[in-house]
Every structure is written in C-alpha cells, then in structure tokens.
Fold each of these.
Amino acid sequence: MNTVVRRRKYDLDFKIEAVRLVVEGDRSVVEVAHDLGINENLLYNWRRKHLDDAVHSFPGKGHLKPADEELQRLKKELTDVKEGRDILRKALAIFSKQPR
C-alpha cells in the first residue's frame, strides 16, 4: 500500500514559543517536544537556528535572511556582468577581424 506522508507546517509563533519553552524554561528539548507532539530533532533544529540568529531564525517560506538575499542578488549581478563581458568579447572579435 502506498501511503503519502504529509509534512506538517508550523507557524512562526508556534516555533518561537516552542524554542522559548526550552531556552527559558527548566524543561528539556525531549520533554517540550513530547508535550507539543513534535519530533525532538525538529525542536533541536529550531533551537539551533534561533540561537544562531534570533531575529532572522524563521524567515518563512519563500523568504530569505537579509544576508542570503544579498548573496543571491550579488550572484545574479555577477552572472549579468559575465554575460555582458562575453558579449563584448564576441563583438570585439567580430569587429577586429581585418578585411582580406
């Protein structure tokens, strides 16, 4: 039998509250995860992300952290510049041919 496993989605408030229970409380990740009905590895990941960058830890689907957005923008700009350079090289090669 082929069963489809759907991933549950958790909103920002749920994630922040779950991490707060672990960080500020006296309960372990395993206890909090069990009480909330989530996998403990998921909560460990959320806690790690939150401790690394509390402000931008959960940017949401389709959104990037500001640093990642800047990196993506710079990569696109680099691609555009390389493309322009290649076009200019080809044009230079065409126009620099001497008539015979």
Note: Residues 64-100 form one domain.
Amino acid sequence: MNRYLIPKFPLGLCCMTIGISTLVEQHNLPVAEYLCRHQSGDWGDLDHDDKQANELALHDGTRIFSAYHFQPSSELKIKLWVITEADRSVTTVLLPDEY
C-alpha cells in the first residue's frame, strides 16, 4: 500500500495562494501530491527538529508545517510550504515569500 494514502490528520479546507495557482497553470504543479504527502506525515525538506515538532503536533493539536521542492525543469527549482492550522480547519499551500 502506498504510504501517501494513509492520512494522519484532517486537512480541513484546502487553499492555495496566487503564487501556487500560477505554478499550477504554468508548470502543472501537482498540488494534490504535496497535500497527500503532508497529510501522511512525509514532512518533506525539514530538519530533524521541525519533523519532531510535527510529530508532536499530531498529538498536541498545534500547527503542522511541511516544505517541499518542486522542480519543473533542470533550470528551475521552487520551494513550497504546506501549513495546516492548529485547529485543522484549513490547510494552505504557499510559496515562502507569500507567508
């Protein structure tokens, strides 16, 4: 079974920023893939401490944060963030400069 199909927490309402929407249109950014990774506990490109904080957040109900890199071409590598609010009501996919 694909580990990305096993959700660890609810995402709530899923939103994306203008920057992410532009990447979807211009480079076919697979937003659903990153949401599935985030929800399944694949925190992406975080350091050990941030990954541990997410694991704790699964139990104490604080914010969950993931970071990933999307590389639509060999010349372009884009960092994106996925943030689920502490109350699990909203998950947003955004670029770091849109925070």
Note: The longest strand covers residues 64-73.
Amino acid sequence: MLPWTTKRVYLNLIEDEGEERIRTAFDPETYSRLVALKDKYDPTNMFCLNQNIKPSRGLAQPVS
C-alpha cells in the first residue's frame, strides 16, 4: 500500500508532535500560503494553540 499513500497526516490526529509533523499535513505550496496568511493576520502568533502554523518572521513570543 505504501506506493499509493501520500505520507501526509490528518490534523485531527496530531497532538504536540512538533512543527515538522504539522508540515506533513500540507503540500509545500499550501503550507507556504498558510504561513503568508499567518504573517499577514497574526504576525505575533497570538493564536498558537492546537496545530499551530508559525509566522515566518522571528517575532516575540505569543501573548499570554
């Protein structure tokens, strides 16, 4: 079956497994678009719970 799999994961099945695991849920183009949206609408990473996509800028820690 391995040749027919996409090697991607469902976000609902991911817990706190790290950023690389979240990347596997998306193809590279989609992930890049999501990062661009995060940069535009949440550059401080305020909404960082669950399966977080971090902004590309190295900004301050999320607001608690």
Note: Residues 28-41 form the longest helix (14 residues).
